[in-house]
Amino acid sequence: MDCQHLDEYYELCILETLTGEACAIVREHLANRCPYCLARLREAARAVYLLCQPARTVRPDPKRKAQLLRRLQRK
Hints:
Layout: H1 10-14, H2 20-31, H3 35-51, H4 62-74
């Protein structure tokens, strides 16, 4: 089955922002356990999960930070 026309909806489905006819089409199609769409839905779930994770604060190396600041001051 060619389901690539649904590719743009998986993330929206995960985020529950898909409404109307598109939502009904995706839900009905997923109820049929389409392997392609279930795989894409899993990928979308991973992407949404990773994007929702807070960024970890990283402290730059003081030496590199000083070098960068010197370069920026020259410009």
